[in-house]
Hints:
Blueprint: E1 5-6, H1 25-40, E2 45-47, E3 57-60, H2 66-71, E4 81-91, E5 95-102, E6 105-115, E7 117-123, E8 129-135, H3 136-149, H4 160-174, E9 184-185
Parallel strand pairs: 1-9
Antiparallel strand pairs: 2-3, 3-4, 4-7, 5-6, 7-8
Amino acid sequence: MILPIYTYGQPILREQTEDVTxxxxxLQQLIDDMIETMHNAAGIGLAAPQVGRRERLxxxxxxxxxxxxxxxxxxxxDGPQVFINxxxxxxxxxxxxxxEGCLSIPDLREVVWRPKGIRLRFLDRNFRPREMQVDxxxxxxxxxxxxxxxxxxxxxxxxxxxxxxxxxRLQEMARGQVEADYPILPPNGSGxxx
Length: 194
């Protein structure tokens, strides 16, 4: 089922999430719904708070970028990945910049600096413990989605000057004046099928 994506100004986007304590049919359905929602919105990552949930969980799928990333020497896993109760253990000192966007902040993109690589511990979809070292675009997507679990948005990483320039647009979004090509739930609670 495609879920509405909560947009900037929704309080849950600023809240910390809670660890998932058990695997269940409800959790597996949420994962399926999040993957379907992410694909429907042409996204490459989606965190539980973005669909109004407090579970410490996000999904990612870079398959759509595989050819472009291969040209840059990066490989990406096939199909969607699931990250339950993730914990970033290490970050590289080297950082890279990239213009990021977010399904919860439609039509807004800004350059964000992040560590080039990370080491991560998490549970996979089958609740098996995993640890992985990643860099490049996958590391960036994981860090972006991980931030959502901490109540942090990508705009929190941009300069105060850029934030001031975006203030009016963000205030409009926070008042519910936002549109997207996928179902959303703005702060005013209307328009969930925009």
